[in-house]
Amino acid sequence: MQLDLGFVRASFPAFAVPDLANRAFFENAGGSYASQPVIDRLTRFYRERKVQPYGPYAASSEGGAEMDEARLRLAAMMGVKTHEVSFGPSTTQNTYVLAQAFRRDLKPGEAIVVTDQDHEANSGPWRRLGEEGIEIREWKIDPTTGHLDPARLAPLLADGRVRLVCFPHCSNVVAEINPVAEIVAMAHDAGAATCVDGVSYAPHGLPNVAEIGADIYLFSAYKVYGPHQGIMVIREDLGMRLPNQGHYFNGDMLYKRFTPAGPDHAQVAASAGIADYFDALHAHHFGPEPDAARRAAQVHDLMRAHEVAVCQPLLDYLGARNDLRLIGPRDATRRAPTVAVALDREAEPVSAALADHGINCWAGDFYAVRPLTAMGVDLDRGVLRLSMVHYTSAGDVTRLITALDKVL
Aminotransferase class V domain spans which residues (predicted)? Predict the structure, then answer.
């Protein structure tokens, strides 16, 4: 089954905007375009249901029902219980709240493992717990390739004092897809829970969190064609054991325990549009399938196959140049289609020059200061990042390569 790119692009109003339609968008890792169902739901909520939800009158009860629908449908797609999904203003804030819960739960002598492959959102909040007397152990990447080797994790777990292992599904600059299920199994065997940052992976197909076994899985809706919300899965046994971070009278509701402030009602409701879009993709490409997790898995594979096909020519082109360093694997099947390169010059002027050729992208450190530093990348120069998703076309990539030839 091949992805119908015409159908896909018709689902994103951005492609009908003149100033966007005539340009190739390669900054998807910073935030993807919003799909039509998400925009429709957000507009409807603000127009018809912008009241306190869950009240006894129609506008209020319908608003609450849409919020519940978002949680219900996204949970089903990821193979978890509805109340194991919660929303927050961002993944960074969700992680910070989690860190405060673990700060109160961990005992002297216990440890947390973090990596130097992570975006700072899944590293900084945990590292700060070192100031509270919690031991922080760093799982280091290979400084040449950026690879996060599970063999290097084993010694960190050997003494049985680690209670949490935090790592990315894939890095936002290295992009290699880590073997999450294998790492989770190692952590569980050592008596540790896991916190997986899925921000850079989820746009390429929602994972089945139950199958990979993660205790916590975090991602950002605005990178998965939705509104600016952080979405968090926390498994019930762990979430109910950790200290409540919400209002004390909501402590028996898992999806409220790690939401200290009220969520953005409209954006939570609009997140059901993510499920609308994924289900529309499935209906267009496949036959009927009543199981939401199976639908999500088929859409995941459909999207990934397209992304691998369009990404590989760019990797081949960049890998053949001798004036830049391609970060991460050269095989598109082993990585997300987020491609960072360290140049022989400052990267941001190059991204500006590409804009003159109809290529929208950016440069910098992308809050990935630790992995870039570990790999010896000059932070003053930064990296040029070229990120794709399933609505990226082969023609977009050809246009990018032509522009790179001129600019570099």
Answer: 25-242, 303-400
Q: What CA–CA distance (Å, rounded) separates 113 from 127?
A: 9
CATH number of the domain encompassing residue 187: 3.40.640.10
d(CA 184, CA 238): 14
Looking at the fold, whether 246 and 308 belong to one and the same domain comes out as no
Q: How many domains does the chain have?
A: 2
Say whether both 145 and 105 belong to one domain: yes
Report the alpha-carbon distance of residue 218 to residue 122 in Å, rounded: 9
Which domain, by its residues, includes 333? 5-34+292-407
- Are both 350 and 213 inside the same structural domain? no
Interatomic CA distance for residues 266 and 227, integer angstroms: 9
* Element of type H or E holding 114: strand 111-115
Q: State the first-to-last Cα distance of the chain, in angstroms, to the nearest integer.
A: 37
Same domain for 307 and 246 = no
Q: What is the pLDDT along the chain (408 residues), one digit of tens a residue?
A: 899 999 999 999 999 999 999 999 999 999 999 999 999 999 999 999 999 999 999 999 999 999 999 999 999 999 999 999 999 999 999 999 999 999 999 998 999 999 999 999 989 999 999 999 999 999 999 999 999 999 999 999 999 999 999 999 999 999 999 999 999 999 999 999 999 999 999 999 999 999 999 999 999 999 999 999 999 999 999 999 999 999 999 999 999 999 998 889 999 999 999 999 999 999 999 989 999 999 999 999 999 999 999 999 999 999 999 999 999 999 999 999 999 999 999 999 999 999 999 999 999 999 999 999 999 999 999 999 999 999 999 999 999 999 999 999
Is there a single domain that holds both residue 111 and residue 229? Answer: yes
